[in-house]
Structures are given as C-alpha cells and as structure tokens.
Known about the structure:
Layout: H1 2-12, H2 23-39, H3 50-53, H4 67-79, H5 85-92, H6 95-109, E1 132-134, E2 137-139, H7 141-153, E3 164-168, H8 174-182, E4 188-193, H9 197-208, E5 214-215, H10 217-220, E6 226-227, E7 234-238, E8 245-246, E9 251-255, H11 263-275, E10 280-286, H12 307-313, E11 317-323, E12 329-330, E13 336-344
Helix pairs in contact: 4-5, 6-7
Amino acid sequence: MRIEAERLLERSRDADPLFQATSFWAAARDAILADLDRHGIGNFRNEGASLSYFVPTYGAPGNALGPEQMDALAEIASKSLPKQRALIESWFSGAAHALSDYRAFAAAVRDTPAARLFGFSDCRVGNPRELFTFDGRDYSRSALNYLMGLALLSKHADLDTCRTFLEIGGGFGTLGHVLTSCWPDTHRYIDVDIPPTCLFADYYLEHACRAVPLLSSVDAAETGRLSVDELPRLACLPNWKIADLDGTVDVFVNFISFQEMEPDVVSNYLAHVTRLSPKWILLRNMREGKQRRSETNPAGVVDPITIDFYSTELTGYELVDTDTTLFGHRTSDGFHSDVLILRRT
C-alpha cells in the first residue's frame, strides 16, 4: 500500500497547485503515511491518525476524552455511582449520541420512499473501533452522518432518481457503500480525494462492496479523460482527476472536508463541480468556520469557510434547507455543524 501511496503522491506533485494538500491535510498526510508504514491498512478504523482525520467516532477520540479520562470515569461509575453506571458508560462510549442520531434518521425516513435507506448495514472492513446495532443493523458515526444528510435531502429530492453522486473528500467511502447497498442496480458513486486518503476508500469499497465494479484511484490516475456515464458504479479518483471528468451528476456531496481547506482550493473544486451541473448539493459545514491555525492550534486553517462563502461561489444554486438540531450537530461549546441543501436554479 505504501508503494501505491508514493506513486500517487509523485503524480500529485505535477498537478495544479490548487490540488495540493492544504496545511491541515499536509500534516494529516504525513501522520497517515507513518501509520501505513507501522500498521498497514487493515486496522485503519480502529487505531492511528485516521481516527483523528477521516474516521469519526462517537466515543474516543471523537468525544475528546483520552484513555486516562475514560478510565477515571469508568472508575467513578463503578464505585461511586453504581446505579448510574450504564448511563455514564453510554455517554462516554458514544452509545447515547449514536442512538439519538439513529432516531432522527429513522423518524425522518420511515414510511417514506427514502425508507429503502434501511437497506444499509455497516461492515467490519477496517476493524472499526465502534459499531452500534439498532433494529438489527450496524451503524458507525460515519454512516449515520451520511444517512442523516440523505434523510434531509430526501425531503426535497427523489433519491430514487438521484442516480449519480459525486463527493469530494469522501473519507473511506462510506457514502458509496450506503448507495450501492440501498440501490444495488442503479446508483453510481464517484469519490474524489487526495492521496493517500483515496487509497483507504479503494480498500474499503473493494472489500465492503465486493460484487460492485470499482475503478480504483491507482488505476484512475493512469487514465486520460473520464466520462461519468462510462465509469463503473464505484469510482475513486485522485483529486486532480476531477479536471478530467466529463458529463453530469445528480448530487454533489461534501461533508466536513471543505471546512478543512482554504477558500482558493475550495473555489477551484466548486468550479469543476458546477461544470458537472449537479441538480442538488448536499453540504455539511461548520457555521462558524473551522478554528484558525495558530501556534497553539496547528491543525486549524488560515481562512475559515463559512456559509457566506458558498452563497458567493454557488451563484447558480439556491439554499432550500439548512438544519443543525435534527440532522447536523451542535457542540457543547457552541459550534454548529450545519447540513445544507442547495438546488440548481
């Protein structure tokens, strides 16, 4: 896997500077590559830098509690609050949060055409640190993030007719697994991402969706121009290949990763997205923008992306819905992760 990563990184250096990793993701890239050297890829949903960058969790580290803090809470629950032990454990394990998200998703799609989203159940590819079982199906935080976004989109769009989804920064490819599970004969998923992250999507989708044809990012890097209509139902492209993509898509998705980039980089991506004329755009973005980079916060950004940026860049689209409370997330310290639905005018 490291050989493929180096090959893609070498190719990426010849791409337009706007396709180079920004400061946030340059640091992530180095940490992820080091993990690949130490552990390989088979355990990427369980340990290492991936948990901090593209494998979200409800429990640690996503809950911002370290091992010592978790142990201390477990001890308190065990010794001092035995009757509240299950309640406390469900909080710091993330089970309570996961159930809350599942209930929002399930209530939104039950008894609607979007109920076919119940056809998805997560898998153990990548040895996930956590999976939660509800109504006989398994869910990760990544999956529930997407399912809640699709639930909101389904209130405005017919998901049965939204057959081609393009995503930039798709992490390890969860959305592709959701779409091909729920629409096994019709829907296409195209994931555009930087190396080495795109290799994790290659790996996950190849193993999670074994019966579905896949174009890997390694193979896509060696091709010329690409037609949307001629791609297999799963396609992972190294990020600069979006410039070689022709055709149209039904839905464009970006969940969280744009907020980790700089405005000129996002503007370049959106120029290619609008060239592909999606009917719908599904975004998740921090309302306040990601924290700025500083000496004490090297993982921040120079210039945060906010909703005003999208209204300026996406002039051919109108905002038709935005939500935080049901389908997004509001943090305890006052930040708002909004889900946005935009429609082409």
